[in-house]
Amino acid sequence: MSTNERIKGIQVHRPIIYGSHARLLTEEEKATAPPGHTHRWSIFLASAATPPPAPRASSSNDPPPIDMDYIAGGADDMSYLIKRVVFRLHETYPNPNRMCEKPPYRVTETGWGEFTVPIKITFVPEAGEKAMTLNHAIKLHHWGEPIEAPLPLPVPPATGETPAATPKAEKVETEAATVPKTEAAQTPAAESTPAAAASVPAEGSAPTSEAPTGVATDAATPADASVSATPVAGEVEFAPLPILPTIASSYPVHAWQYDELVFSDPQTNFLNLLNENPPTPLPARNRRPRDQREEHELKAGNKKKARASASARPSISRAGTESRGGTPLAGTPGAQPVGVPGELGSADVPLEFTQEMEKSEHNRLTEMRIKIVEQMDRWREKLIANEKELGKLKEELRA
Q1: 129 with 174, same domain?
Q2: Region (Disordered): which ranges (predicted)?
Q3: 124 shares a domain with 188
Q4: Are residues 43 and 132 in the same domain?
Q5: pTM of the prediction?
C-alpha cells in the first residue's frame, strides 16, 4: 500500500484550545511599555489537555501561589502534526506576522485595543492537508454582566456621632443632635422640620457646603440620597455600592474555546503518525486549585464556610461551561459570598477543560435541540390551524 494512499471512511480528531489571555499592566510593566498601553495579552494555540498541577508539600499549609499569566492546555507536544503556526497581529505592531515553528504556539504583547487575530496552521508534509485558518478576537475587558456583585460594606458608627435624621416635628428641637432611629425611619418627607429641610438642597439646585444637622462637618455625604437613608433600629447600615467591580478588574480576562482538528480519510503514513501520538485524555474533573471563595474562608479560619462555599459554587462560568456543580450565579448583592467566583488567578473561568464540561455542553445542546423541536411543533400547529381557517374563509367567499 502506498504511503500517500488515503484510507477511506476514517476520521481522526485532535482536541485543541485557542484564544487569548489578558490582564492589566503592573506599574513596572507600564514603565517599559509603549505610551498608552494598558494591558498585557497573549494569543495562543495548544492541545486541549492541561498538565496536572504540581504537587504541594504535605507539610505546607500555605495556599498555592496565584499565577496571573496562567494559560490552560499544552499537555501534548503537537509538533508531530503541526509544522508552524502564524499569528497575524494588527498592522500597527512591528512585524505583524508572528511565526511559531515549535511549541508553545504563543505570542505575547502589550496594547490598549481589541482586534481579531487570524491563526494560520500549517501541517507537516506527511499530513497532505491544506493549511487552515482560525480567527479569534482578543478580549481585554470583562464584557457583559459584572463578574462579581459588589458587596455593601457595613459602616460602623463613629464614636460620639449619630447619623443624620429627619424626625417628626413634634418630637424634635430646632437643632437636634440625636434622634431615635425607629422614628427617623418612619418619618414622611412632608413632616420634616424646616431646619433639616434647609440643610438638604432642592432637586436641581447646587449643594450647600453646610453639613446636615447631627452630622460632623468632616463626614462624607453620599451623592445618592437613597443610600444615605437612616436604617431601622436593629439593622446594619450599608455603604453605597461601588459603580465598577474592583476585585474582578484585577483578575485576567480569559477568552478560550475548545475545538478539534479533524482529519478525514488520512494518508497511510500520516495515520500511522497520529496513532503513534494519541492525545492526552481530558481529566474527569477540574484538578486546579480551589476557588477564591473557598480560599478566602480558609484564610479566615472558617472551614465550615469554606465547605459551604465549595458546595454552593456557581455552576455557570463566563466561558459558557459548567464548573463543579452548585447553584447558578445569583445577581443579588446579598446572595453573593465573599470573593470572585472561578479558580485562583482567574475571573469566573475554569482553568482546565474537563470531561465534566464536555458532558455539560452536550446536555446543554441536547436541551436546546429539544426546545427548538418543541417550538417548531407549536408553530406547525399554528400554521395548520391558520391554513384551515383560510380554507373556510375562501369557501365562504365563493358561496
Answers
A1: no
A2: 151-228, 272-346
A3: no
A4: yes
A5: 0.62
Flag whether 333 is in a domain: no
For 231, other C-beta atoms within 10 Å of its C-beta total: 14
CA distance 293 to 313: 8
The answer to whether the bond into 104 is cis (omega within 30° of 0) is: yes
> Would you say residue 162 lies in a domain?
yes
- Is residue 357 packed enough to be buried (19+ CB in 10 Å), middle (13-18) or exposed (0-12)? buried
**What DSSP element (H or E) covers 390?**
helix 355-398
Residue 137 pLDDT: 95
Through-space distance between the first and last CA atoms of the chain, rounded to whole angstroms: 77
Same domain assignment for residues 197 and 98:
no
Cell output for 254:
480569559
Question: Per the domain annotation, does 353 fall within a domain?
Answer: no
How far apart are the C-alpha atoms of 163 and 156, rounded to whole Å? 11
Which residues on neighbouring strands pair with residue 255, listed in sequence order?
20
Range of the domain at 372: 358-399
- Separation between Cα atoms, residue 329 and residue 315, nearest integer Å: 7
**Side-chain half-sphere of 24: how many Cα atoms within 13 Å?**
11
Same domain, 264 and 391: no
Beta bridge partners of 382: none
- Cβ contact 40:108 at 8 Å: yes
Q: Write the CB contacts of 204 (distance below 8 Å, at least 6 apart in sequence).
A: none
- How many domains in the chain? 3
Q: What is the pLDDT of residues 116-150, one digit of tens each?
A: 999 999 999 999 999 999 999 999 988 765 554 44
